[in-house]
Amino acid sequence: EVQLVESGGGLVQPGGSLRLSCAASGFTFSVYGMSWVRQAPGKGLEWVSLITSGIGTIHYADSVKGRFTISRDNAKNTLYLQMNSLKPEDTAVYYCARHSAAAANDLWGQGTQVTVSS
To answer: Taking 80 as the threshold, does the pLDDT of residue 16 lie above it?
Structure first.
């Protein structure tokens, strides 16, 4: 089965850190660009970060730049998102998504909940 499974979410205080993981299976992970996308309560989907295939060019949304770090381990078929200096507005369900050849997200995980609260 072609599958993405996120993990690592939880409850954290403002200023804290979490590391999210996305385990990929059923396809050749290394040849796909991958994104993290989030959905806050009552809001639509917000793209967070992208890492391309190959050399691994990285892009971030302005809202997380300087605080979040995306990375990938192709040998482990795993995508990561290191989140530091977390803010309450980072509270959301975080999804990893695979990019199609047309740069659309064609495969999504089930999401993992991140709650930032004191």
So the answer is: yes
